[in-house]
Amino acid sequence: MFSGIVESMARVVAIETDRDNKHFTLECDFAPELHIDQSVAHNGVCLTVVRREDNRYVVTAMNETLKRSNLGQLQVGDLVNVERSMLMNGRLDGHIVQGHVDMTATCTDITDDQGSFIYTFSHESSPEMVERGYFTVDKGSVTVNGVSLTVCEPTATSFKVCIIPYTFEHTNFHALQVGSRVNLEFDILGKYISRLAQLK
Question: What Rg, from alpha-carbon coordinates, does the chain have?
Answer without folding.
Answer: 17
